[in-house]
Amino acid sequence: MKRHLAEAGDAALPPGPRAMRGGWQHLESKLVHWLLFGCALLSIATTLGIVVSLLSQALGFFREVSIWEFLTGTRWAPILVPQSFGVLPLVAGTLLVTVIAAAVAMPVGIATAIFLSEYAPDRVRRIIKPSLEILAGIPTVVYGYFALTLISPLLQKVFPDMLIFNALSAGLVMGLMIIPMVSSISEDAMLAVPRSLREGAYALGATRLEVALRVTVPAALSGIIAAFILALSRAIGETMLVTIAAGATPKMTFNPLESIQTMTAFIVQLSLGETPHGSLEYNTIFAVGLLLFLMTLVMNLLGHWVVRRWQERY
Amino acid sequence: MQQATTLFHRRLRLRKGVGDVFHILFLLAVFVGIAGLLTLLVQVLVQGLPWLNWHFLTSYPSRHPEQAGLLSALVGTVWLMVLTAAFTVPVGVGAAIYLEEYAPKNWLTRLIEVNISNLAGVPSIVYGLLGLTIFVGWMALGRSLLAGALTLGLLVLPIVIMASREAIRAVPWTYREAAYALGADKWQVTKGVVLPAAIPGVLTGTILAMSRAIGEAAPVLAISALVYLTFVPTSPLDRFTVLPIQIFNWVTRPQDEFRGLAAAGIIVLLVILLSMNAIAIYLRNRYQIRSEG
User: Fold this and answer.
1) Residue A29 lies inside a defined structural domain of this protein
2) N or C: which end of chain A has fewer CB atoms below 10 A?
3) Which H/E stretch holds residue A20?
4) What is the maximum span of chain B, computed from C-alpha positions, in angstroms?
5) B183 close to A (CB below 8 A)
6) How many domains does chain A have?
7) Interface membership of B221 toward A (CB under 8 Å)
């Protein structure tokens, strides 16, 4: 409504002053309008750029290796002889680390969100929230260092045959890394639940836990699910942590104590090597990148859709 | 009757007991995050502090750990940050102004908005592949600072746009209406009234976006590769390395000495990040006080 009034501002001016302001000012306004529009369009161009740069080289790859072989093959060995281009081991490695991270971050993240929104006094929340935000701002190489130099050696005391590079320590540390993402999106959803709902439950004699689990969490469920999906998508795309700590051996395994390789870690490994540009081996990183992009895109769209579609309105 | 109330009281005690147990569980969950953060910081400080000295800050990388330093990475990080900001701030603020002040309500605007929120979720390594193809390859910038800055610029653009939109949205409508009433046109209102009022918020968002940019290793690694640089870049077309890549390089060496160097590098990186965040928080607080008073 207000916006509507302001937009009328330009048109509502009488013709006199506009002419007196001179052609230059009018031209400047027009130019600026187009320039700003161009800035906004750049985001569309970025998406197109991603798609074109991935597709153009992935197509070169798919001319020599069929999509079916790529998607269903269970051996990934692009730079070994005999070559083999089945991406499933990389996908399995990625999912393994992601599942471990989710097993840590979901319960901890939600419990943190419940504590912050239902239990914590304002004073406590004002200390805890920024601390968790620090956790979210730490660069991922630092988490890689942490997993490799502290968590792996500690886990080796529990599992003596475990290699220093393994899915478990990478997954656990990644879980720590995405806790703030799960907790802050979930907490936002819980804070949006109106007080009156809680007060209604308290008036019926519910305890604080019953209010949290039977009123707040169900009412905020769409936000919590979205938090999961977005955090998982973040975990799938995470690169440095798994490159440093999870190993470089593509493997079809769901044993967390083994060394594996994720899609992202493979892209880093190959782009650092001496593989000549334009070769089949080099183009694999774009095929894997395309798959990674599509997986995270679907999850992000799903996450935003869940928020919009299932949001309870009060 | 008597029996019913004792049953009720017994159940109430149980419900309260379960409530207390969960209260403790929730509290423990919070401490998982905080304890993880503290352990990480202690580990970095214990391993890194012995290696942190003036020589470390002013020397080039070396095969001998005791002579190694991170000068080229430090200078590279500053270069990259300045170039990235020079590209992404004008474009990001421009896009934010367009979306908040100019954009009509149509399918194209909605597409741009959905697109921006999706771009924020694209894995950073994918931006690296974009930069590798378009900036390094097609635009023939080579593995240069400029190619890295453009890539990182695109990566943090959604953050700058979203923060700037918030800041612009927070400017009261009465400001704009007052300016329109004086006969200003839309660009004059935006330039003279909206932007100056939104600048603290825009700055805060920009600093946070830059602190994300300088911690990123994956896309920069795809662009710059692992180089062993014993010079500091002097032009945007020079090759470069940055702190996270130097840290990655040291972490992946098997010798313990290099792990110590990595930890020292992490301390330097975290100090830079924390001071940037402190500046952002300072700006935010200052701005809040002014708008209240």
Assistant:
1) no
2) N
3) helix A15-20
4) 89
5) yes
6) 1
7) yes
What is chain A's percent helix, strand, coil content, to nearest 5? 75, 0, 20
- Asked, for residue A62, whether it belongs to a domain, the answer is no
Domain at B129, CATH number:
1.10.3720.10
Pick from B32, B47, B125 the residue to mutate for testing the A interface (most A CBs within 10 Å): B125
Q: Is residue A289 part of a domain?
A: yes
User: A112, B26 in Cβ contact below 8 A?
Assistant: yes
Cis peptide before A256 (omega within 30 of 0): no
Domain count, chain B: 2
What is the rounded distance in angstroms from the CA atom of residue A262 to the CA atom of residue B16? 46
Exposure of A252 by Cβ count < 10 A (0-12 exposed, 13-18 middle, 19+ buried)? Answer: middle
Whether residue B65 is found in the same domain as residue B42: no
Q: How confident is the model at residue A11 (pLDDT cuts 50, 70, 90)?
A: very low
Are B112 and A6 a contacting pair at CB < 8 A? no
Statement to judge: residues B65 and B176 lie in one domain: yes
**How does pLDDT run across B134-188, given as a tens digit for each residue?**
998 888 887 888 999 999 999 999 999 999 998 898 888 888 889 989 988 888 8
What is the distance between the alpha carbons of residues B262 and A241, in angstroms, rounded to a whole number?
A: 14
Neighbours of B2 (CB within 10 A): 6
Comparing B53-57, B79-83, B95-99, which segment has the lowest mean pLDDT?
B53-57
Report CB contact under 8 Å: B44, A142: yes
Together in a domain, B33 and B74: no
Region class of B225: left (phi > 0), else alpha (psi between -120 and 50), else beta: left
Q: What is the ipTM of this complex?
A: 0.87
With the C-alpha atoms ordered A175, A286, B217, B261, is the resulting torsion angle positive or negative? Answer: positive
Minimal CA separation from A35 to chain B, in Å = 8
CATH of the domain at A134: 1.10.3720.10
Give φ, ψ of A77 to 5 degrees. -150, 70
